[in-house]
Design brief:
single chain, globular, 61% helix, two-stranded antiparallel ribbon, 13 helices
């Protein structure tokens, strides 16, 4: 098993790492470029957003290679009673459907409702292939077998929610890809402990490997974005593989553990829906983008883009570790872990927080331009002695044009 895990990870990593630079060139040729709109993005200049195909290619090459090799050595049987050939075919078909819709969206932009239709079609491919949430067993909820219609609806809802959760949290450099790596590794540990099928283990490992290969190009300062093609693929894959991996047993939780692992993006998405419904007072408002996501809030609090991303990485890792401990050691040890983390954060907050005087020098993470309050930026109308926090929100780097969000305190 460990040999398969190593090969799945390394092959996916290499393929993605090698092909990502080519997707940057392709993005510029086909027009898959992100432009600043309404001040929502951290970047104020055009940025390629076609990294998704590289991640998908790395994932597929690694997965298909391992499936062929394992079939040849008779370590798996895709045509046994589990009918994994059918499930994999449905999974790959769903990836193709979603990718077609999202590639068009990355190049030309389509309406959110149209993209939702693509996600629905992808989810239909999954349930037709027999990948379903059939039951849930918890101390407070015992449903070892649910009605077929309920199973189909629940599965489709799960896939669409997780797909959009990863898509919506994709707002800062490296955020969605990093959180997906943490989620994939957490699920991998759970699958290994659970004795899940080698196929689900290979799938989640290949996904993690492809993302690690992409992250160097996406982490701040990013050279490319993963785009809607990539973020939708990540959410769709995490949702589907979590069902495949957790389907072996009902003893702890079929879907609750993946729900905990993906708790951060799911919470952010659910809160976004509630927030938009209250603010817009209509269903149409749900599809209208805003600046109320967790990463927007952290940046608004004064954290740099890199700091905000690392904070959310940490929260996601806590969710993942909580799920692993819950599965392996039970609820009380999981709660003990959570209590220890909370106490550590509260008691150590003062040591990690730095009081700003407002006179620090700030460096652009993109071009390394340094803003010094002592000299200001007189060419752009900023007088000497103007503190960084007092700069207008629309102010941008005089060298590369990036916004204030791309600056951080110079150490």
């Amino acid at each position: 098993m460990w040999g398969n895990i190593a090969i799945a990870f390394i092959l996916a990593f290499v393929v993605t790492f090698v092909t990502t630079p080519y997707t940057i060139k392709i993005a510029k040729k086909v027009g898959a470029v992100s432009e600043e709109k309404e001040g929502r993005r951290a970047h104020r200049k055009s940025m390629p957003k076609f990294g998704g195909p590289a991640v998908i290619l790395g994932f597929l090459v690694s997965t298909i290679y391992l499936l062929i090799v394992m079939s040849m050595e008779n370590s798996i049987n895709l045509f046994d009673i589990q009918e994994y050939w059918k499930k994999l075919l449905g999974f790959f078909a769903g990836i193709l459907v979603i990718s077609v819709f999202c590639v068009v969206d990355d190049i030309k932009t389509i309406r959110p409702i149209t993209k939702l239709m693509g996600q629905l079609l992808g989810a239909v491919c999954i349930v037709i292939a027999g990948i379903r949430i059939d039951g849930i067993t918890l101390p407070f909820l015992n449903l070892p077998q649910i009605h077929e219609v309920t199973s189909v609806l629940f599965t489709m809802l799960w896939i669409i929610v997780v797909t959009n959760a990863i898509n919506l949290i994709d707002g800062l450099d490296g955020l969605s890809s990093g959180i997906s790596i943490i989620s994939a590794i957490s699920l991998l540990v759970i699958f290994v402990l659970n004795g899940s099928s080698i196929i689900s283990i290979v799938l989640i490992t290949a996904l993690a490997g492809a993302l690690v290969g992409f992250l160097p190009f996406n982490y701040t300062p990013a050279k490319t974005f993963i785009g809607d093609t990539g973020s939708n693929f990540l959410g769709f894959s995490l949702a589907t593989i979590s069902i495949l991996g957790a389907a072996k047993t009902y003893t702890a939780a079929v879907i609750v553990l993946p729900l905990i692992v993906l708790g951060l993006p799911i919470f952010d998405t659910v809160w976004a829906i509630i927030r938009r419904l209250i603010k817009g007072k209509s269903l149409k408002a749900v599809f209208k983008a805003d600046k109320g996501h967790l990463h927007h809030k952290l940046v608004a609090k004064g954290f740099s883009q890199k700091q905000a991303v690392l904070i959310l990485y940490g929260i996601s890792a806590i969710f993942g570790m909580f799920a692993v401990i819950l599965f392996d050691s039970g609820i009380w040890k999981a709660l003990s872990f959570l209590l220890i983390v909370i106490v550590a954060i509260v008691s150590g907050y003062k040591n990690f927080s730095v009081e700003k005087t407002g006179n620090e020098q700030y460096e652009c993470t993109q071009c390394k331009y340094i803003y010094n309050p002592k000299f200001g930026n007189e060419k752009n109308g900023i007088a000497k002695g103007t503190k960084f926090d007092d700069l207008p929100e629309e102010w941008s780097c005089p060298v590369c044009g990036e916004g204030k969000e791309m600056f951080q305190v110079r150490e």
